[in-house]
Predict the 3D structure of the following.
Amino acid sequence: MIAIPDLAEHLLGLDAASPLGRLRRQRAEILGHEEATYRALVLPEAPGGVSLAERAGLALRGALIERELPLAAHYRALLAATADAAVIAAAEAFPAPDGQDRLSVLFRYADRVTERPAECGQDDIDLLAALGLSPQDIVAVTQLVAFIPYQTRLLAGLRQLQQERAA
Amino acid sequence: MTRFTMEEVGWEPRLPPVEAATATPGQVAALEACPPGQRGSAYFRTLVHDPASLAERGALFTKVMYAAKGLPRAERELATAVVSIVNGCVYCASVHARRYVELSKQDAVMHALLEHGIEVQGLDARQQAIVDYAAGLTRDPTATTAAGLAPLRAAGLGDLEILDLIHAVAMFANANRLMQALGRSVPPAEG
């Protein structure tokens, strides 16, 4: 959809040939799997029961909760390219509404997994299943929501190394 | 603070795991790509409901924890145990506490961390720097600045070691949430 070789370096304005870019390539396999995990979760060729718009919305909420603003801007642009106005508005509404409609339940789940994972319970999974999500969809949603905190900490750590070099 | 333990903790999924008899070819292939010791576990058989994400994220996990050189494996385990304590994942903390002790023989250090939490006293400078960094990046990633690397540098960590530490902390922001959302830790007394 968008030709970005590496999302982290795109968001950080990091040149692959810079010292930090070369350092990352000492862990080239990790870099490759990070990017492939992101694509498998956010931009899958076969999205199954969770649409690309819903995936972008879930990713956006995670980035907003984590206050990772460049990552949020990326997912906001992705959402704008895939979703209708109602989903776009709902994705940035905090807290998520109490309703039992699909988006409200999905977004409440994303918020809990991101902010208070220790409070997750059987009820959370049962609510997703009651919406008609298959086990594959539930695992995909959970993998996606749980991957945004990875991206957030990767970006924060790389930013520290960038700032250290600039000092 | 005694809910964390180095004893074996169970993990009970909140979705029925995939059974070998009914697995699709895609699920079988994704499990076969996982480490042999793990592919039969309830956790992997739950994640394999979505084969594509299991394959890529599983490969990422393996490289983050086991890639050669860089941060010693024991210190990756120390960092991931600390992240798991901060996030409250009793299962993950027990697994990675045991691996840290196996690799480092620092039994007393890990017992103190599990018993008293990450504010514990008496760590050496390098342990302290790793514990503090892992906890800070876990709790408030966007509040970190370059100054946060200074204790790691003073303790002798090089660029690749710090990159490995970042990867380990990030990986457990992810792993803890998967474990906590898709299942629950079962303490030894209940098991």
Observations:
- Chain B has a mean pLDDT of 94.
- The longest strand of chain B covers residues 10-13.
- Chain B touches chain A through 51 residues (CB under 8 Å).
